Amino acid sequence: MSKVPSRGEMPFLDHLEELRWRIFKSIAALIVASGISYWLIVRFELISLLIEPAIDILETDKLLILGPTGSFFFILRFTLLGGLILGFPVILWQIWAFLSPALEKRERNIIVPALYGGVGFFAAGVWGAYEYALPVTLRFLAGIQVEYLEAAYTAGEYLSFVTRLLLGFGLLFELPIVVLILSAFGIVTPNFLRTKRRHAIVVITILASLLSPGDLIMVTVLMMVPLVFLYEFSILLSVLVWRDKGRAQEEEEEHTIQPPGPAPESVEMDR
Question: Which of 151, 129, 146, 163 is nearest to 56 (CA)?
Fold first, then answer.
C-alpha cells in the first residue's frame, strides 16, 4: 500500500496548485477589505484624520487637486491603502499556511507569536510617526524659504508623503521581529549583534535624521532612543532563541544515546 505524501512532501505541481489558490484567496480578501475601507473612509471621514497634522500649517482643512480626475484617484489610492492594511492579516495567514508545513515544530512555535508581535510593533511605529514625527516634519518643511514660497499641498503628493513616512517608521519598529525570525533559522547570533552594536547605532542615527528632519536634536534623539532600545531588545530575543535551541539540541542528543543493556548471562557449557 503506497504512503500518502504529507503537505511538506507534495509534488511540485500540487505546490503550484496550492499557491494559486492562496494567491486567489489573498486577492479576494484584498477586494473585500478595500470595500470595507471605502465605507470606513466615507462613514467616519478619515480624510480629515489624514490631513489633521497639516491643518495648522496650511491654515485650511482642504487639499488641492489637479485635474478633474484628481479626487477620484485620491480616493482610490486611499481606499486601496486601507484595504491593504485591513486585508493584511488574511494575506499573512495565507502566506503562513503555505510555508508552515515546511517548518519544524520548534520554528513554528517561535514564528507564530512573532507574527502577532509584529503587528503590535508595526502599529506602535505608525502611531509614533503620526503623533510626533509627522507634525514636526511638516512644520520644518513648510518653514523653508517662506519669504519666497508658499506651502500648498496636492492631495496625491501629500498622501504619498504621509504613507512613506508612516510605513517607514512601522517597518523600522519590526527590527525585533526580524531578528527573532533570523535567530530561529540560525542566520543571526547574539554575539554577531553585540559586535555590530556600534555600527547599528550609526545606522540608527542616520535613519532617524532622514526620517525626521525637523529639529535635528530633539526629533533625532526621540527617534534614536526607541530604536536603540529595540536593538538591545532584539539581542535579548536572540539570546532566548539560541538558549532554547541549545536545550532542544541537548534533549535530542540525550534521546539518541541508548542506555547500555544488561550484561549477557554467562552460559555454562556442559563438558
Answer: 151
User: Could you report the average pLDDT of every consecutive run of 10 residues in the chain (271 residues)?
Assistant: 50 88 96 96 92 83 90 94 92 90 82 86 91 84 81 90 88 90 90 93 83 61 84 93 81 65 48 43
Burial class (CB in 10 A: 0-12, 13-18, 19+), 37: buried
As a whole number of angstroms, the distance between CA 79 and CA 159 comes to 12
CB atoms within 10 A of CB 202: 9
CA angle 107, 109, 111 (to 5 degrees): 65
**Predicted structure pTM score:** 0.81
3-state secondary structure of 175: helix
- Of 213, 234, 232, the residue nearest 223 (C-alpha): 213
